[in-house]
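explain this:
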Amino acid sequence: MTLLHGFPTSSYDWAAVVPQLVAAGHRVTTADFLGFGESDKPYPHPYSVLEQADLIEAVWALDGRETTALVAHDYGVSVAQEILARNPLRVTSMTWLNGGIFPDLHHPTPEQTLLHGPSGPEVARQMTEEAFTASVSRLTGRPLSGELLHDMWLVVLSRDGLRVLPALLRYMDERREHTARWTGALRTYDGGQQFVWGPADPVSGAHVIPRIREAVPHAELTVLSGPPAVGHFPQVEAPEVVGPLLTEWLADSL
């Protein structure tokens, strides 16, 4: 299976889930998208979801994978939608975690809006760890430890990462540009689909659930309502729940 991460973090978001998948006998592939985590962060560069999909397909080619189960969160859901639109037969099953699968329902954070605007480079230069951790904490339903938040901040800083944040947010424009194609891929995909959703997410939370039920009525939907309810990062906030959901889903999908 392949795990796709979100903005502005990295594949480290899956760190507590991967051992559970491996212990269940699954072969797991994950990577930091270009511009994220420990990957190269060219600057200036026109970061694009389409390019990220190209790179994931290149990883599969190197890994000898013709098909895979795909699990996507946040930014990664747009990459997954592009992959489905290109060739849905490569994806044996699809799991979605909180993300902007329907662009009209995506509520960007104030920080994202500023970073995406004309003052984005200056906002990025002035970002501090305190501001970053406060922003992430507002998205979660279950509090993350200070150590974990610090690690997430270090991931963002890696390789002069603050400099590229405004360019990475181009994905919000691409979502609007490719709405019909990407939501169409979601609606018409013939494979099994599972949604693992944190309702306490102000960006892509409870307000998205009715659209999921309407658009993909036969999908498996698990709402992590707690208590306490999970927010934007299900795999980070509740790995002890997400891990078994993924392993059981894969076992049932075989």
